[in-house]
Amino acid sequence: xxxxxxxxVRVLDADGGVLGAGVLLGxxxxxxxxxxxxxxxxxxxxDRMRGPAVRADVADEHFVPPLEDRRGDVALLDLAGPVDGxxxxxxxTALPRNLVVRTVGFPRRVHxxxxxxxxxxxxxxxxHEWVQLNRDSANEFPVTSGFSGAGVVxxxxxxxxxIGIVVGEFANDIAHLAWMIPVETILVHLPGVARWAVGGxxxxxxxxxxxxxxxxxxxxxRALAGWLDRHHSRDVVMVLxxxxxxxxxxxxxxxxxxxRPETNGAPEGTVPSVGSVDLAVDASSRTADQVSRRIIxxxxxxxxxxxxxxxxxxxxxxxMTVVVDGVDDAEQPEVLLQEVxxxxxxxxxxxxxxxxxxxxxxxxxxxxxxxxxLTARLDRLADEIKVxxxxxxxxDRHHREVDHRAAGLRMRLVRLRAALGRPDxxxxxxxxxxxxVSLARALRRTGRAARVVEELLERRxxxxxxxxxxxxxxxxxxLVEDTGLAGLYRRAHDLLGRGLDDLALAEEAVRGYxxxxxxxxxxxxxxxx
Length: 529
Prior knowledge:
- The protein is α+β, with helices and mostly antiparallel strands.
- It is built from eleven helices and 18 strands.
């Protein structure tokens, strides 16, 4: 058990058998998964592997069993007495992909605890309420039975604040993954746990109203939802102006973890995934430092009194998806853009920028970022179309069936590039998304066929190399004038020169020629003796 994590406890049955793990909160409560508690039990026991076990009662108002879709599954147990340990701090924070985290579980035969490293891999699970944990390496001990309810911490965070609890184990050695219920999801089901939680809310008050699932600008809503859900490596800036910000506020509200509204009736493709927005800030009347303070707090970066919040952002924050509305109503829009938001993007974050007015001077700079972002995405698309064209050419050359999609996709690319000059450049995203999906489908289909052809070509090259080696061996053995061998060579050579459909016959002919060469050399050797 780590000495700097005195809040880690075991959850036990009456006989001392380990049921799972838990997180000590304060002096009188333990947080764990509801499925750790045996069905129908009104109490369990907890300990820290030293000192007596303490009874922990199950209270209905603090017990949320797994729902039909597996959401929920959290419990806050009431302790009958003190446990030898100190309570944990829970942290609401953005959860960037690839963040290295640590947890400690109590699997069978390792009841004194085993520490495991994992990496966050994005939201998933029931209702997108969970976060996927990928095993950090094949050498790491797998998360198995005995880890459920275990606190998860950012391995680089010296505060050892808990950012979630383990809910599921690695499915198998191939998957190398497990799941975590983050603190914000826990608060949805157990609001009373908030007294032990720190960290800013993901959304400013201006975004927390109940959004309407209905939307008039369906195309824009789909473009925004798709952008939020798909982490394109190059398309990292989106700009919305004026009335389009209504769609932005709707999307942010629908993505909320803690106040997810009913989305029945929403047009298909217009609802982003839960938790797809890490932070939404209203910059109106705020300084660059005030916005920066929200960013570093949400990122879980500890305050540094030796530097300003803006300097801390520039020093580096984990990648997040950030919405900043009212940029043009900030105290100094240009300072906010250039000294806070631009460094944020350069460090790997994705930002949506909302402007109230088309006349805003700072809008020009923001739109230039978006144009560069979209251009980079189109450049990547162009590179992938070249790959598709090369695959199609390969299949054509060897008389294989091919759909010839590259030419049509190039024409789409031309139209997309032409559309980038419009003020509403973001309107190209639905067609861009559709083009990328079509290209990915074509690459999968054509790529499989191209790989088959490449494998056949490699076999033909190997067979040709063998044929040349056998011929050199025959020539070196004085068999240049052997007419029988010459005929076998010509047949194998001619078959290799035909299409790939005759490759099996060609390989057989090469093997036959090689066998004949070996026999002839053997006969010649015996004659010389």
